[in-house]
Amino acid sequence: MAKIKIGDVVARASYNKDVFFKVVDIFEEKGYCTLRGLNVRVLADAPIDDLILPTSTEIREYKKDYIKKSNESMERIFYRRELEKQKRVVRSELEESNGFFDVPGIVLHIDGDEEYLDLCLNTYRQLDIEAYGISLLEREQPKKIHSLLIKYNPDILVITGHDGLLKEKKDFSDVNNYRNSKYFIEAVQNARRFEPSLDDLVIFAGACQSHYEGILRAGANFASSPHRVFIHALDPVFIIEKIAFTSINKIISARDIIDATITGIKGIGGVETRGKLREGLPRSPYE
């Protein structure tokens, strides 16, 4: 077998190659590696002798499935928006106005993984969402959240990165059994000290297998992961899009927002939340 190197894409033989990872650290003297999910927000340790190097064809097919799911979600979003736009065109004609314009919510996305952050920021751009991105290790997020909120004054805050249950830990209720959940919880608590209202600042926080109950109790509107499953890298973006493009006059049910995700109800949960879209009238003829 070829020697495993940092940056390699690998899978675990004992898990039937269910998830592909990138190797981020190697501890040869202890016989294990630290892995980061290729398209899910998880960190995991695995014995070096349990790792398999997938073929280029297997990696291509794995990525193809990820792209397919992402594209399907994007298509549903644009279809929904087009239906809403058509309804408003009819209203605009009836009122003999110059047309409506949208002012969606502004997003601050803090991510422990720079590659995932870039992926999310690119998706925000595709979805016409104004988003500011900060790459910050999970343990640093609670310390800097207050100053970042002052600087960017967002309508919606995303706090994410990677997480996971520590190996051999079975008590799901103990936050110390998770890699980064305690930092997500503390960051949300600090954000709520800055803005207590769940309507004025909408918060999503968490990653794969995160301590869902603790993050919600800290004050998040939405969090992962109720069943301690892996969540898709873009799930936070699809949640935020639904909030950013729903009228402030409408309260969105938790079910409607969860339905916008790829992972679904086992990976994402939360509370009903007011939308952040403001409608303007009329559109300037000089734009």
Question: What's the main sheet like?
Answer: 6 strands, mixed
From the N-terminal CA to the C-terminal CA, the straight-line distance is 61 Å
Number of DSSP E strands? 15
Determine the fraction of residues in helical runs and give it as a percent range. 25-40%
Tell me the radius of gyration. 20 Å
Strands of the widest sheet, in order across it, are 8-7-9-10-11-13
Shape type: globular
Per DSSP, what share of the residues sits in E-state strands of 2 or more residues? 15-25%
User: What is the arithmetic mean of pLDDT?
Assistant: 89
Q: What do these coordinates show?
A:
Helix 3 (141-152) runs parallel beside helix 4 (181-194) and helix 4 packs parallel to helix 5. Helices cover 35% and strands 20% of the residues. Strand 1 (9-12) and strand 2 form a beta hairpin. It has helices at 56-94, 114-126, 141-152, 181-194, 212-218, 235-244, 254-258; strands at residues 9-12, 20-27, 32-37, 43-47, 51-52, 101-103, 107-111, 131-135, 156-160, 202-205, 222-223, 251-252, 269-270, 273-274, 278-280. The mean pLDDT is 89. A six-stranded mixed sheet has the order 8-7-9-10-11-13, sandwiched between helices. A five-stranded antiparallel sheet has the order 4-3-2-1-5, with no helix packed on it. A two-stranded antiparallel sheet has the order 6-15. The longest helix is centred in the N-terminal third of the chain and has 39 residues, at 56-94. The chain is of the alpha/beta class and 287 residues long. It contains seven helices and 15 strands.
